[in-house]
Amino acid sequence: EVWNPNGKYRVISTKPMPGTRWINLLVEQGCRVEICTEKKTILSVEDIIALIGDKCDGVIGQLTEDWGDTLFSALSRAGGKAFSNMAVGYNNVDVNAANKYGVAVGNTPGVLTETTAELAASLSLAAARRIVEADEFMRGGLYDGWLPNLFVGNLLKGQTVGVIGAGRIGSAYARMMVEAYGEFLKANGEKPVTWKRASSMDEVLREADVISLHPILDKTTYHLVNKERLAMMKKEAILVNCSRGPVVDEVALVEHLKANPMFRVGLDVFEDEPYMKPGLADQKNAIVVPHIASASKWTREGMATLAALNVLGKIKGYPVWSNPNQ
Ligand code: DGY
């Protein structure tokens, strides 16, 4: 799909993105916008090299793509100056390689903070109250009347919520989970909710009843939650991951879920997306959703706009709007 065919700057989006604001913005500033409508979900390096072609000023890409040396050298050969991930995470981008070829890199923080935190909060509550299991039970025609023991879950009131990676999203999650409940408790004249900064990650793992993971993925956070750390957690704890799959050792997690039926997880991300490790899908104590934490209309349009601004800024000679290097 091509917009403004005679535009001076050629900007490629490797995927159709929500809304038209991002397209208008680029077109108004003299760009020819090419949107790849290829049906396959994940584009290979070769696919993207073909898209870049001989002349390309900037690319908006996706977290499913491997933006390393090969692609940045191809983009730079085509005269490209800017690349933006349409994501806040940029573990798929080799920023050093981009620097080497003089390509500026952008990402899309801010616009997805609350949307992502809302999904983490939703997964926490859904896991606590076994909502997905109960929904499957209803749809399976298995409900034949109220029972005292039917889908008994955890009450979050009075429990400890732990956040690992208290950046923008982790802090927003904490506010949603803790402050909202705190106000409710205060209004009822009950003991207010308190905050504390844990002295170590292991302390969070040992003490929290619900733990939400929000670190970036890099060498230091790969398999941050491994077999040993899972064993530190309470037997009835809830673990939520809306960060990146490899932050959790998924094979160890499957074993832990099998051995501890009262332990629950809410996962938005997986080690080898789009796949789940064998056995995970069979676990009733796991809620799994397909990497949708930022999937609200407002946020996805905002991400697309921010990604376009990143690329446009650089093409027009300004610093990249949102640069993970800064
Ligand atoms: C991101 O932005 O990094 C998410 O994983 C997708 O919104």
From TrEMBL:
InterPro entries membership: D-isomer_2-hydroxyacid_DH, D-isomer_2_OHA_DH_cat_dom, D-isomer_DH_NAD-bd, NAD(P)-bd_dom_sf
Family named by the database record: Belongs to the D-isomer specific 2-hydroxyacid dehydrogenase family.
Domain (D-isomer specific 2-hydroxyacid dehydrogenase NAD-binding) ranges: 123-293
Transmembrane annotation, as ranges: none
Record carries keyword Oxidoreductase: yes
Keywords in alphabetical order: Oxidoreductase
Cited Gene3D superfamilies: NAD(P)-binding Rossmann-like Domain
GO terms of molecular function: glyoxylate reductase (NADPH) activity; hydroxypyruvate reductase (NADH) activity; NAD binding
Protein name listed in UniProt: Glycerate dehydrogenase
